Amino acid sequence: MASQTDPSITIDIPLTRDDHILIKHQITQGLLGNPKTLPSKLFYDERGSILFEQICTLPEYYQTRTEHHLLTKWADEIISLSGAEELVELGSGAATKTRVLLDAMAKADQLRYYVPFDVDESIVRRVSEELAWEYPGLQIHGVVGDFLFHLEHIPEGGRRLVVILGGTIGNLLPVAAREFLVSVNTEMASGDFFLLGVQLITDRSRLEAAYNDKQGITAKFNKNIIRVLCDNFGSHADPEAFDHVARYNEDEHRIEMWLRSREEQILDIPAVDLRVHFKQGEEVRTEISTKYDHPLTEELLASSGFELVKWYCDPNNLIGLALAQKP
């Protein structure tokens, strides 16, 4: 399904009945697994997207501002090396950091086309309208979907830079991350460039503080997954019947977010014909955020068919940007 609001904006929504069946299957399989899990894409309804924007401004959440500073420093070089006239962003969100790259492309007279790809329709529409106003003449083709399943809906184009920022790749298990990047590579043309933002392994205290902010915004974001189950899948669960938990898993070098049941309860989800028993203190994992380093990132890219062109890192080794190319 496509929707057009003005001549410079096209929005594709390639969701089908099969996609709804798939998410129901993912919910069922996750909650019947050991440990219990829920797919993290359920965070991102309109409320979840707004909460995540708030998280990105928190003092404890160093990731967004550090990546923004890194992009600001190197955007001109990245755009020069890539020669890109089109920017495709997977997991675009509010596109706050994207504007740094768009500015660099505009300055180099290379800005023609932008493709924001996100699971939340409201954020894709909002960002498309904002950027059409901010960059007169820019053609925008938004895609509302799950980039794990709908990459083929990215429109064909010219010389482009595909970007995944914010450490989004860390939300996937290692095998899934590689499979996803292989699929990204497959959709790209030879010679196209790819920019991957990764969050780097650092000390536990800094990492855990970033996901346990004092204002409790991350806790609200985590519990929003229960609200989405209520709004979209008929559950009557109370988000406040769960506590937010975020801890660092040293062995897997990743942050794990969980919801811990405050009491013995039944989580009912009528839309998937499921009733799941939770003991008091039992947890369900809602997200992982794997941290990388330079060698791990280069290995991931190489195994996915990319060649690393340039590695950028902040002075404190918190965030890495890997500019790669499809041969």
Provide a concise account of the structure shown.
With 327 residues, the protein is of the alpha/beta class.
- Terminal-residue CA separation: 33 Å
Oligomer: single chain
If you average the pLDDT, what whole number results?
A: 95
CATH architecture of the largest domain: 3-Layer(aba) Sandwich
- Report strand %: 25-35%
> How many alpha or pi helices?
9
Structural class by sheet pairing and helices: alpha/beta
Low-confidence stretches: none
Radius of gyration: 20 Å
Number of strands: 15
CATH class of the largest domain: Alpha Beta
By CATH, the superfamily of the largest domain comes out as: Vaccinia Virus protein VP39
Going across the biggest sheet, name each strand in turn.
Answer: 1-2-6-5-4-7-8-15-14
The backbone outline, from C-alpha atoms, is globular
Which bin fits the share of residues in helices? 25-40%
Question: At the third CATH level, what is the topology name of the largest domain?
Answer: Rossmann fold
Question: What series of H and E elements makes up the topology?
Answer: EEHEHHEHEHEEHEHHEEEEEHEE
